[in-house]
Amino acid sequence: MSARKLILLTLAYNVGEGAIALFAAIAAGSVALAAFGADSYLEVAAASVVLWRLGVRGKNAERMEEFTERFIGVTFLLLATAILFQGSYSLSRSDGAEESAVGILLAITSLVVMPGIAIWKLKLAARNNIRSLASEAKETLACSYLSLTLLVGLVANALLGWWWLDPVTALLLLPWLVREGLERVRPDDDNDDEPEPRLCACRSCSYGVRRCYASCCSGVAV
After folding, report:
1. Kindly report the CA angle at 128 between 126 and 133, in degrees rounded to 5?
2. Which of 89, 135, 152, 199 is most open to solvent, judged by the fewest CB atoms within 10 Å of its CB?
3. Is the predicted pLDDT of residue 222 greater than 50, yes or no?
4. For residues 44 and 66, is the Cβ–Cβ distance under 8 A?
5. Chain-centroid distance, C-alpha 161
6. Mean of all residue pLDDT scores within the chain
């Protein structure tokens, strides 16, 4: 499957996921589900810009690549802000993820579908050295992690009354989100005459998700 088709699949899935999550949030009065739906539309925004970037060729491609990277950086920071607000609000009110059969099914579906799509996008990004696609794939992984925290929170609250588990586990993602966001928003201070290092394409670092010290990734920063 091509990068464009994967991005279109991401868009279609997240539009549907976001709508269902928001309707379920209204029905259940769930702040966690509402935040989950909002996160889906941040992913839609990032994927839309990457789709635009993939259609740009020639001398404007590099400029569009830089713009897309910075835009995705902003969405990372917005996602971090949303998680901080939702987590702080839930903890202050002793209010976890409310019971919702729709929410549980939605989180399970997301966990089944989205990690595989994210890894596929990372592979294509590494193969074609498209940094913006790799960044968008990492945001997909972040949303997959939030699906896991939502699922665990919904089940734990329903069975054990552990209302705090969903906000606490979601807040653990903040340092990574902020780091990824700032790395993309900050201007590049590197020497413009030096070529950009290629993206990592080895399994040992999950195609650039983790820092890799294998010889094939020497000097690669993703």
Report:
1. 65
2. 89
3. no
4. no
5. 28
6. 83
Through-space distance between the first and last CA atoms of the chain, rounded to whole angstroms: 23
What CATH code is assigned to 3-217? 1.20.1510
CA distances from 100 to 16, 26, 41, 144, 153 (A): 17, 11, 21, 18, 11
- φ, ψ (nearest 5 deg) of residue 200: -70, 140
Domain range list for the chain: 3-217
Residue pLDDT, tens place only, 9-58: 999 999 999 999 999 888 877 777 888 888 899 999 999 999 999 988 88
- Residue found by looking up tokens 């839609």 in the block: 44
Q: Give the separation between CA 26 and CA 161, rounded to whole angstroms.
A: 21
CA separation for the pair 146, 163 (Å, rounded)? 16
Q: Are 28 and 103 in contact (CB under 8 A)?
A: yes
CA nearest 32: which of 79, 107, 96? 96
Residue bearing tokens 């290092």: 197
Amino acid at 27: A
Question: Do 76 and 184 touch, CB atoms closer than 8 A?
Answer: yes
